[in-house]
Write a structure and sequence with these properties.
Layout lengths: L2 H11 L12 E7 L4 E5 L12 H11 L5 E8 L9 H10 L5 E5 L5 E5 H4 L6 H5 L2
Parallel strand pairs: 3-4
Antiparallel strand pairs: 1-2, 1-3, 4-5
Bound molecules: tetrahydrodeoxyuridine.
């Protein structure tokens, strides 16, 4: 499994996006330590805030199947620059990804920017803060 394979999976799963409102297709692919890939696309709803981003769909699919250890993630959309994940997704990523885990952001022009979890969401709120009261 190469970084390029993971990016291709993220690009392909965009075709499954349910986006009647934004028409903005996003795909995500998450590689586990066990070598499995969990993909996700964004799924919107007529009640807009109920929609879920591609990244969270992929992460929740993996977690719900008992996966806990992740190696890297790729996210793809048809954007000018490599697509930046929203703040909510960064917070969910930080719950499950190690600070040094890489997230590859891409667009359809094959521009890729890779970020560590830590650099994508520095000084993030987490379990340690919750427990340190
Ligand atoms: N979206 C994602 O799925 N991931 C991102 O990283 C950015 C935004 C979705 C949410 C919504 O369905 C659409 O893109 C427009 O915001």
């Amino acid at each position: 499994m190469t970084k390029q394979n993971l990016i291709d999976e993220a690009i392909n799963i965009r075709n499954k996006a349910y986006v009647p409102y934004s028409k903005f297709q996003v795909g995500a692919a998450l590689l586990t330590k066990s070598g499995k890939i969990y993909t996700g696309c964004n799924i919107e709803n007529a009640a807009y805030p109920v929609s879920c981003c591609a990244e969270r769909v992929a992460i929740f699919k993996a977690i719900s199947e008992g996966e806990t250890e992740f190696v890297e993630m790729a996210v793809a959309a048809d954007t000018e620059r490599p697509v930046p994940p929203c703040g909510s997704c960064r917070q969910v990523m930080s719950e499950f990804f190690t600070p040094d885990m890489e997230i590859h952001l891409t667009n359809l022009k094959k521009h890729v920017k890779s970020f560590s979890m830590e650099s994508l969401l520095p000084f993030s709120f987490g379990n340690d803060d919750l427990m340190s009261k």
